[in-house]
Amino acid sequence: MTEQTDAPKPRKRRRRRKGRAQGDGDSTKDETPRSQQNTSPPPVVDDPETFALDQKFSDLGLSEKVQKALDEKGFAHPTLIQSQMIPFALDGKDVLGQARTGTGKTAAFGLPALGMIEPGDAFSAMILVPTRELAIQVAEELTDFARFSEHRIVPVYGGQPIHKQVPKLEKRPEIIVGTPGRVMDMNERRHLPYDNVKLAILDEVDRMLDIGFRDDIRKILGRMKPNRQTIFVSATISDEIEKLARSYMKNPEKIVTSGKSLTVQQVAQSYMSVERWDKPRLLSHMIRTEQPGMTLVFCRTKRTVDKIQKSLGRDKVDAHAIHGDMVQGKRNRVIRDLRDGGLKVVVCSDLASRGLDVEGITHVINYDLPEDPEIYIHRIGRTARAGRDGIAWSFVSPDQGDLLTAIEMLANTEIPRLEIESFKPGPVPGDVRAEREHEAGKKDQEIKSKSRALSTDNLDEADTSKFPGGLVPKKLPPKRMMGRSRSGRR
Description:
Layout: H1 64-73, H2 80-90, E1 95-98, H3 105-116, E2 125-128, H4 132-145, E3 153-156, H5 162-170, E4 175-178, H6 180-188, E5 199-203, H7 205-211, H8 214-222, E6 229-234, H9 239-248, E7 253-256, E8 267-273, H10 279-290, E9 294-299, H11 302-314, E10 319-322, H12 328-339, E11 345-349, H13 350-353, E12 361-366, H14 373-380, E13 390-396, H15 401-411, H16 430-453
Parallel strand pairs: 1-6, 1-7, 2-4, 2-5, 3-4, 5-6, 8-13, 9-11, 9-12, 10-11, 12-13
Helix pairs in contact: 2-3, 3-4, 6-8, 14-15
């Protein structure tokens, strides 16, 4: 972390909110060599809500080579999802597992897969994931766990030319990690057969259904042998996921280790009321004065991602971007550098960040508040992983009070407002002022038009179609400033 500036720290103060989100009236890159950086702090293994402290990995019946890899990495206690899923998976049972993000889901299904699949048994395990980033990440994690075995794990995903992935499949790897679209494409081209799949795993099922992979999933599972073992892992288990599980599983064991609301209790959440045009200044101010650790900044659109990255760069904040239009190689480099601890600030879109599982994220900033409250839960779940604490800041404009309330209802918590006394709002931009004046002029014109329509002059000649039932009133209601009265939300 770079040296802190002498700028004043924001004073946190909770206040009763009336009109919820209503507004009132520079950093450099760490030059430490990557090999010397503490890329991610060790998991906090004394948290009983995350870890099964009464168990050890050596109690779960994993293979000797997998256990050796765990010992070398210093992993002793499994997480709750790992302690419950691994024994069922090793017994060959179908499993439907739910766990919040950052609780070790990859190891929960990956470790038993390495123990059950024999080296040389080509294409015997298929792992489906929603995004290419997650495909790469899961393959890397499993390869790390397989350091003492002969298993070959190959990721296949869109965004990279097929001819670059085919040679790896021609070596007949045992475990495939892929996105549904590319897996189907490889199968149709006869590069990736399904007939030997003994273990099918679907990770982040809820995300895959949200993206629109429902039909692809059904086609892929439908073409596999019915006697395979199937594992579903999801942050939420909806009725649709339950129905999908019943269609492709045999008496699955259901494991739930997190509440349906997905509340991330270890995340310190707060919001800041700010006008839309002031958000770039506030973001830069918070990063330069607060000096957060590894930070993800979420935006709704790719255009905003690029805009904010450039804005931060002008303020001497070293920020990198991730979104769907980036060249795959560049995206991979950014994610790799983030995972290695070489980046401090990454600006990303929701779609590009799906499946982005990086240890050590300390802060999540919702530059754009998501329209779907569940996306908010997934965003802040990027921090506070493996028993560690995290911080989430949200920028809320004066017209987003209802959306903030919806998020609080889903998260089952009141998000306090954070007062930033060291930040002074800027002037209203000329284009915004002109737009407001234009809208005010339109409203004035509408009021005058309605007033003329309801004139009491020449009532006999009045157009009766302007009045309910054609009845012309003898006395008109007083004029009202329609839409002009001030409200609590502005």
